[in-house]
## 1
Amino acid sequence: MIVTSKGKDNRYTYGATFNGVHSSEYGLDVLADKEIGLPDKTKITVDIPYSNNIIDLSDLYGSQAYGERELKYPFHVMDRQDMQKERLYVLWQKAVNWLMAPSHKVGLVDDVDPHWHYLVEVQKAPSWEEFKSAHGTLEVTFTACPFRIKNDYEGNDIWDTFNFDTDIAQFVDFDIVGSKDVVLYNIGLNGIIPTIISDSNMTLISGDTEIDVVTGENTFDWNLGVGVTAIKIVGTGHISFRFYREEI
């Protein structure tokens, strides 16, 4: 849920939702010099003895691994309805406590990219610069997982948010009588463990992997690699796959 507030009369009305609360709640506006850092690839290589060649094992588990990234947000802090130093201190102190409270990565949704979220944590101390006229700048660095995560699951029928440049339509809900061959498409950059929801016991066969699904929600140590995954579903009933695309 995005929480917004008109009470502080934010000039730019541009911010971000962190841990379920919008930055405007604390009189914060994101300034223009925001930086969205990109992750480095994590390369795993082995030298071949007596050779100038190397073996690259970076995608040994199905997809290229990446390191963490940094998102740098400079916030302008001001309450234009109460231009007092005391009010400014209340705002920035509450903002710092809000940002520093989580002890693990939580969701961050940028207003300009509302259909995706990052998993982030403020690990470095924010910096505060105060100006004479009851306003200031709070600079915050979020340490983030390498991938953005789509808010809506793949194959949903929410056409209002469908992007014809980047999204694909696919079936993720199936009625099975006996058996059926299906395919799932992971068009992101990272393997994804799906949640499998079934109203009866079924068996999934994908390559050399065989999975017994029980009634209800199921998760297994089995992921949908990047690209196409072919699955044979054996049983009778309704089954759904829920997974969320991950991209840089």
## 2
Amino acid sequence: ATRSSALALWQARHVGAVLARAGITSTLLHVISTADRLQDRALASLGTDSVFVKELEAALRDGRADYAVHSCKDLPSTLPADMQLAAVGERADPRDAFCSERFASFDALPSGARVGTSSPRRRAQLQAWRPDLVFAVIRGNVDTRLRKLREGQFDAIVLALAGLQRLGLRAAHTVPLAPDVVDPAVGQGALAIETRAADRGLSERLHAAFADPATELAVNAERAFLRTLRGGCQTPVGAHATYAGGRLSLRAVIAATDGSRLVRGERDAAVETLADCERMGTELAQRLLAQGGEALLEAAVETRAPGPLAGRVFLLPRTQQRPSRIAPAFERAGAHVVQAHDAAGAAAGLARRPPDVLLFPSSGSVHAVAAYLANLRAAGVRPLVASMGPESSAAASEAGFAPDVVATEANVAAFVQSVTHLVIERSRA
């Protein structure tokens, strides 16, 4: 399984060619991700850090694909329990690249120049370097971003150098940015193969055919760093590790979103195993958090732009007393979530305002507020309805509220992503 952009297809074909040399034949399954469908929106507004991978994982789960090819930097720091990282291949150049049609370098940009980047990590570090510049979000595939640059929408843009090299593309001025100035994203430049966790035999074959030991050691340290921060690809952090001669060198940064402060650190040690590398990443993350990085990450969450569900009221019926994992996920996307264990609680919590969205994670959640739903139906009120699976979908339909969307898979991230996509699409109508 692969995304359908030119870069994603190049990557999938490259992986397929490497595997073919080991006697493993592949055919491509093209999958359109949420991020690809909604290229007019900032990535941070899409409600999840897995915007590039969820649909590929769905193809693995339902058996349409046996493995998925990812840019390693797009993978969340923790994979779902039923998925595994089978192999990480030899890394291309991990650096970011300055691209401009008019200016020879980042230093040559005049004050007030407009720089396009969709990455909070890049923006924060570049703004620390040049606070006199104007930074703006740019979306689209690599060729689309270069076209916007040529059209004069930006004075410069910053892209991953590996993607440019793989596609044979460049701007008039394409200059790599040193990792000690702009730390790359975790996993940048490396390709990863993901499989179902249960497919151990296939995973072992793919690993033997594609994995690069030095890159795997480096990337494992970087991913452990990110995992300890509980960060994703939209968090203003970077990390870059190199392995040579039995030693691993790891440098990393946690940044204020406006670049006003950078907390940097480095570690260098002899390593023998993946566990050694993961320990290094964890220890460096803990050190940077203690040196002020934790406050920067908390501030980044607080100052994040309103989510895609901002201003909307959701009703989440509950059947359990323990804290909900679903409500905080929707609240992070901007929604106001009213939790209720019965019809009276729903009416009181909503204070006579009808909800914009009904969330049904289980059939029991539908039954819990059956009387409230009957009142909505009698009043002719029909909110958007979302369910997490077939049983809750059937129960909602029986109650007169057939779902407008059913989660692509029965987990919180997929539920949030499916609902977010529905709300965005309906707001455009």
## 3
Amino acid sequence: VSMVVQLGDIIDGKCAGDKDGKGRTAEEALEAVLGRLRKIKSSKKTLHLIGNHELYNFTREALEERLGCPAFSVHRPVPGWAFISLDPYDLSTIQPAPPHTAEEAFKYLEER
């Protein structure tokens, strides 16, 4: 395997466990999947994209730390190829964005 790209929604959106406490928590579910991904022999590091299901369970900062990939990044695994990772949830109702982010976005739109 040359490279693994995890496209987001790595866990279920509602991983709080079930009513009798026997279901997996979000942390347990994430660790179970990451444990499997670590077993894949790849010449490049795994590129993780953040989906809405992750954001229902973790903060963006916690995900970036756990997954080892910033929300915005460029990966060049081989010559001639570039993977550009964008965060489609930068401005969303799932988690509030820092105030300066919205201000910058509105300023950009007003200038155009």
